[in-house]
Amino acid sequence: MTKVTVIMTSYNKAAYVGRSIEAVLQQTLSDLELFIMDDGSNEETLTAIEPYLKDPRVHFIQSGVNTLQERTTKTRYAVLINQALEQAKGEYISYATDDNVYAPDRLKKLTGYLDARPDENIVYSGSKIIYLNSKKDPVKETIRPAQTVQWNAPCAIDHCSVVHRLSILKKIHAEFGSYWDESPHFYRIGDARFFFRLNHFYPFYPYDEVLDTNYITEQSIHYQLAEEEKSDFIKALPPQSTCRELRYLLKQRQGR
Ligand code: TYD
Ligand code: MG
Description:
By secondary structure, the protein is an alpha/beta fold. The protein has helices at 17-25, 43-49, 68-73, 76-87, 106-115, 169-176, 190-198, 221-226, 232-236, 243-253; strands at 2-10, 32-38, 58-62, 90-97, 100-102, 122-132, 138-144, 162-165, 205-216. Strands 1, 2, 3, 4, 5, 6, 7, 8 and 9 form a nine-stranded mixed β-sheet that branches. The radius of gyration is 17 Å and the shape is globular. The model has no long low-confidence stretch (mean pLDDT 96). Thymidine-5'-diphosphate is lined by residues 9-11, 39, 71, 76-77, 80, 97-99, 219-222.
């Protein structure tokens, strides 16, 4: 069995995706497979990805999506992640995006943590977030720490900071009919929606070290949402569910 399956979603981040892939392939834990799930990126991005396809650990899957209509009827990264999960062979699952950079020891540390704790199923680490302007200069930096056991992970943790056992997915599918929710109402907070599902059964355990860096770029969904002049992509999305709704529902369920 492979130790870790890393699932990276990719769409038009030519300037960043190479560094994200490299950070996965150069992990000190080398027993991994990497699914690069590309959602119809431009040539420039495909050229940036190409050199890494030689590595036998990489599976490159292209969705063929190209219209705005196709891009907005489902939360695309949820669709891509679900496809990869169907084929995953790793004992552990780790998520990555084309604008996130793993620290070199990330997978060794987080899988080592779970190896030593058979009763725990999900671990998360601290994360650094860097906001970039249109010239790619950093304009703001924040840290998301990992210090508490989380029974309410939506919007408190990013999916690039999490590692979970493959074995927990069966229960999620049985309860909800899929792994990640593909509804377009969760485009803004797809990972929060997945964590909402996980938190029905499992808490997230903290690993108190910053082990990834997340770049908010001009192309990012969150950047586009914050812009005053909304892009065609944002205009085509249905109303978005909020962090508050998910967090409130979980609290109610847990009687808090
Ligand atoms: P990203 O733009 O980085 O948004 P955020 O502001 O949440 O960081 O998008 C998140 C991931 O979704 C990224 O890896 C690319 C992927 N994605 C697709 O696969 N298809 C799409 O149509 C879009 C817009 C994004
Ligand atoms: Mg992003």
